Amino acid sequence: MIQPIYVYDQQILEQPCPDVPHNSPILTNLIIDLWDTMRNAQGCGLSAPQIGVSYSVFIIDSKSVFQSIGTAFRHKYYEPDDKGITETFINAKLLQTSSEIWTAKEGCLSLPSLVRDVSRPWKIKISYLNQNLEKQECEFTGLTARMILHELDHINGVLLLAHLLPFSQKMLYFKLKSIKNGKVKVTYPTMKKQKLVA
């Protein structure tokens, strides 16, 4: 079911999420809601706190991005043997990051209309449970790694803004105020009142 996406200045977006119990009765519906909501918003990643649920669950679809961009961008954002993923990440833990750092533009469904350059490691290693609650330990690179790190930030209560210099954050005051007050037009439903679900 499509859920409203929580936008800037919502308390739940600034709080670290606990791991979700494997036997949680809400897990199956939560995953369905994440996919429905992300696709409706034409996003490529979404975390549980962005739909008002404080659990360590997020989804990534870098495969659709790979399929939609040109060859030149594929070489820039993906390794030669990488065609992206469509995956659910439950209770993910970052194990390792590479020393190679690269910068690219990032946006966020919780910060509509805001796109900024962010520097992140090219390669990461993480452990997580997939949708079938099977333990995984995988390495990811390029844009897929960037998407995962972006969603891991959400799980840890960190927004894209935290990667900007203080001066840059101050320059965004009026844009953030517009997002907070619901004056930025989006094609998906948003949540403007605080509401915590655990």
Task: State the main characteristics.
198 residues; alpha+beta; Peptide Deformylase; 5-stranded antiparallel sheet; two-stranded parallel ribbon; 6 helices; 9 strands; 28% helix; globular; hydrolase; Peptide_deformylase
How would you characterize the overall build of this protein?
- This protein is an alpha+beta fold and 198 residues long.
- It has one domain (5-191): Peptide deformylase (Peptide Deformylase, Alpha-Beta Complex).
- The protein is built from 6 helices and 9 strands.
- The protein has helices at 27-40, 62-68, 71-77, 142-155, 166-171, 173-180, and strands spanning 5-6, 45-47, 57-61, 86-97, 101-107, 115-121, 123-129, 135-141, 190-191.
- The strands form 3 sheets. Strands 2-3-4-7-8 form a 5-stranded antiparallel beta sheet, with helices on both faces. A two-stranded parallel sheet has the order 1-9. It has a two-stranded antiparallel sheet with strand order 5-6.
- It is globular, with a radius of gyration of 16 Å.
